[in-house]
Amino acid sequence: MTKYAKKAAAVIALAAFVATAAMAQKANVVYVDGGVSIKSTAGKLRAADFGSQVSFGESVITGKDGMAELKLENGSEIRVSHNSVFSYTNVGTGAESRQVLATTVGKVSYKLNKATGKKPLIQTNSMVAGVRGTEFTVMAGRDGSVVLEVTEGIVDVESQGKMVTLVKDEGVEVTPGMAPGEKYALLGKELDFSNWNQGKIDAFLADPVAGLDRVDAQLASYQKALNDLKKPYATGTAAWEKAVADYKALLTTGDTEAIKAFQQATLFPLQDTRLTLILNMRYHALNYLSVRRYVLSNMYLEMKGRYPLNRNAEVNAFFAKHAAMLAKYETVIVPELNPNDY
Amino acid sequence: MIVATIAFASVSCASAPYVQKEKGVLKLVSLINEGGVSEVEGLTPTPFALDSETLYLESDVSTFWKNLKAASFEMTDARFVETEPVGPDSYKTFADTFDMKNFFEKYTGKDTSIVSLDTRDGRYYLLLERKVQGYPKVRGLKGPVK
Predict the structure, then answer these.
(1) Interface test with A, best of B59, B103, B141 (most A CBs within 10 A)
(2) pTM given for the model
(3) If DSSP states are collapsed to H, E and C, what string results for chain B?
C-alpha cells in the first residue's frame, strides 16, 4: 500500500466510528461560463449555475466552451477549464473525513487555503498528491498521462510507490502505470495543455496497443490494491460476525456493564476496521472505474472514428485488447460497484 | 362523449412512445454520409453510447464525428429494418454490461428507440430520440455488426 493510501486508511480507521455530519460538505459554484453540468451520485446530469452546490460523489463536467469556478467551505478555490471533468469525493467519515479532489480529464487549477484542517488528497488517473496549502494545476491527458505544475507551496506527487516533491515553479509528468518522471522548471510559463494533450493523443495513435498496455498497468495497480484488501476484509468480517453473535448472547444476560465493555473493547473496533476496509476497497474500485470511463473510452473513440470499417492487423489488435480489458473490468471491478457509481 | 374521446386520445398521445419514421431516419443517415459534422454534432447529446462505451464530453462526441468524416465513413446502401422503443433489455443490443445497463436506465426514456439499419458493411443500431430541427437526436450508435 502506498504512503498516501496508508495515510488514507489510517484516517478512515480513526474516523469510522464518528458521526457522518461532515458528509454534508459541499463545494459552491461561484462562476460559470458556457456549458457546465454536474453529474450526481445517481448518475443524473444537471446544469451548473451560479450558486449550485457540488456534494461528495459528484462531478463537474465542462463543455467545449465551458468553465467553472468552485469554492470550498474553507475558502479554497478550484477552476475547472473547458473539456474537463473534476470529481469531488472524500475518504473517511465524520470529523476525520478527508476531501479527494480529482482531475479526471482536462485541466483543473487549485488554490488551496493553508488554513485547511485535513489536507485534501489530490487524485488523478495515474497518481496521487499530497499538498500543504498551495497553488497548482493538474492536467490530465486523454491517454491517462498527468502533469502537475506548482505555482506556490509544496506538492508531493506519488505514483507506483515512488514520490517526487515539487516546489514553486516546478512540474512533473506521470505516465500511466509508471513512476513520476523527472521534475522540470516552469520557466515562468505554464504548459500549453492543448498542445501537450494532442501530443499524447498522437503518441497513442502511433502505437495504440502500447497505449492500452500502459493503461492496463495502471489498472492492474488499482486491482492489486483492491485484491490486497480482500483477505483482511474476509478475516475482519468473520471476526465481526462472531462478535455480533457473542454480543447477542451477552444481551440476553442483561449485564449492562459487560455489554458496554464488550461494545467498546470488541464490537465497535471490529466494526470500524471492517468499515475502513470497505471504504478503501471502494476507493480503489472507483479509481479503476474512472480510468476505464474516461481514458479507455477516449482511446476507443479515437480508434473507432479513424477506423470505422477497414482495419489492419494492428487496429484489430487494439480492438481485441480493448475488448479483453472491458471483460476484465466486468469480472473484477463491476462486482465492487453499485448502479449509482455509473 | 366527444370530450371524453378527445381527452382519452390526448392521454394516449402523451403516454405513447415516440415512433421513429423511416423517412426521418434515412434523412439522418444521408446527413451522416454527407459528412455534415457540425449538424450531426448538434443532434448528438451527451452522454452518448458508442458500442460498449459512453462518451461524456461534448469534445469527445465532436472528435468522433470529425474522425468519421476524415475517414470518409458512410453507411453504404442503408436500409431501414425496424424501430423498437427502448425496453428493459434493450441495453443488450449495445452490450450486455454494467455500463450499458446503467446508461440505458439513466439516459434513455420512453421516447428513445433503437433503430436497426442494414448496410453493405453490416447492421447498425441507432439509439434515437425525438426530432430536433427536422432530424432525430442521436443518443447512441453501434455497428457495423456482421
Answers:
(1) B59
(2) 0.87
(3) CHHHHHHHHHHHHHHCCCCCCHHHHHHHHHHHHCCCHHHHHHCCCCCEEECCEEECCHHHHHHHHHHHHHCCCCCCCCEEEEEEECCCCCHHHHCCCHHHHHHHHHHCCCCCEEEEEEECCEEEEEEEEEEECCEEEEEEEEEEEC
